[in-house]
Amino acid sequence: MKSLAVLSTLVASALAAAVPNVNYSGYKVVRIPTEQSNHAKVVDIIKTLKLDTWKYPKAAGSDADIVIPPNQLSAFNKAIAGLKTEIMHEDLGASIESESTHSSAFKAGSYATAPDSEWFMDYHSFDDHMNWLNELQSQHSSNSEIVSVGNSYENRPIQGIHIWGAEQGKPAVVWHGTTHAREWITTMVVEYMAASLLSNSSAADATVQAMLDSYDFYIFPVANPDGFVFTQTRDRMWRKNRTPNQGACPGTDLNRNWPYMWEGSGSSPDPCDETYRGAQPGDAPETQLWLEYLPRLVESQGVKQYIDWHSYSQLFMTPYGYSCSETPDNHDMHISLANAFSQAVEAVHGTSFTTGPICNTIYQANGNSVDWAVDVGNIELGFAAELRDTGRYGFVLPPDQIIPSGEETWAGIKAMFENL
């Protein structure tokens, strides 16, 4: 088994070395609001020019956020003549350069772990995230421990922190970020919530005390470590994991790979597609780890709530993704809690979150983790969140929005538990 892990690491390293860095200098990101009269035309432009999208226009009335390489700009500009457009990034490469300042290596004790500390003023490397998590735990060793789901395809740890109150063993709450590698804000916000939970665990915050008295928290900042590292070393816009597939296109969308309602129009059988669901249900190594970890947690102490944190679009969503007509038996409770989250978020910085079932709110998504958690995993409450913003910056969110995003998200979480 050990030799297999070493072989996987060597193969992955060789494949990564063969991949050139993707340079986004001169790329534009453009939003086209669609309506009944232009939706078909916008979809045709995307397909004809074979353009990548950050947001695909699922229906008339939805936005198309389109990435245009320099050699396609002339054809794109000609094709969109007469359409209303908004520039999100004039030069995506320049935006990435200004965002990606994670240059100083983390040293134990060099960053405080409080929610208002220097750590939350920038994005960081994967190794620094793991070191910071260890530092956070060491500062709160009486009511926390480092936990791991296991190691990824390229042998990186999917590591988290388990936080409790006076005693362990209460029903669990599970949060994880960075399922999709390019969604860096989720890593930081998930860590912000872990820091907020621990920094208030001995303070006079009645809501936090009630949360810790009632639940154990299992918080994982990076659910897709291989993809996350790839966004920082090769391609900032990478979404999937890094497992090889038949043909030239690696990676599986880890939020389309769960073995429940796996096939359908809400995922793709094409390995080159960003929503590639894998060759078989649950075949991604990272999915397999969660499929072992979550049932053990359910059996040992029960799991009350599961949240998969994503970006962007400012949505807080309930099951289901696989169907736009079906809802779980406790749909009303899901919606009530989602609305409590949204209202509390807006009260902090005026940031508006839309709530509703995944399929109706963003798009159909087969094989997603939330549907599995609620219908198969015996987890009472499952949510999928899309954090800031709504499209001004998209995936390349400036670091100065980390703390405001953390503040409002934490307020939303506290409101949910006040209503639970």
UniProtKB/TrEMBL annotation:
**CDD domains recorded for this chain?**
M14_CP_A-B_like (cd03860)
GO CC, sorted alphabetically, is: extracellular region
* Domain of life, per lineage: Eukaryota
Signal sequence span per UniProt? Answer: 1-16
Does the record bear Metal-binding in its keywords? yes
Query: What Pfam families would the database entry show?
Result: Peptidase_M14, Propep_M14
- BP terms from Gene Ontology: proteolysis
Cofactor(s) needed: Zn(2+)
- List the active-site residues: 386 (proton donor/acceptor)
Protein's cellular compartments: Secreted
Instruction: Fetch the PROSITE patterns from UniProt.
Output: PEPTIDASE_M14 (PS52035)
Tell me which residues make up the Peptidase M14 domain.
122-420
- What SUPFAM superfamilies does the annotation carry? Protease propeptides/inhibitors, Zn-dependent exopeptidases
What's one GO MF term for it?
metallocarboxypeptidase activity
Name the principal localization, coarsely classed: secreted
Q: What UniProt keywords apply to this chain's record, in alphabetical order? A: Carboxypeptidase, Disulfide bond, Hydrolase, Metal-binding, Metalloprotease, Protease, Secreted, Signal, Virulence, Zinc, Zymogen
By its UniProt entry, which InterPro entries does this protein fall under?
M14A-like_propep (IPR036990), M14A_act_pep (IPR003146), Peptidase_M14 (IPR000834)
SMART domains the UniProt entry points to: Zn_pept
**Protein family according to the UniProt entry:** Belongs to the peptidase M14 family.
Q: Which PANTHER family match?
A: PROTEASE FAMILY M14 CARBOXYPEPTIDASE A,B, SLL0236 PROTEIN
Q: What job does the chain carry out? A: Extracellular metalloprotease that contributes to pathogenicity.
> What protein name applies here?
Carboxypeptidase A1, putative
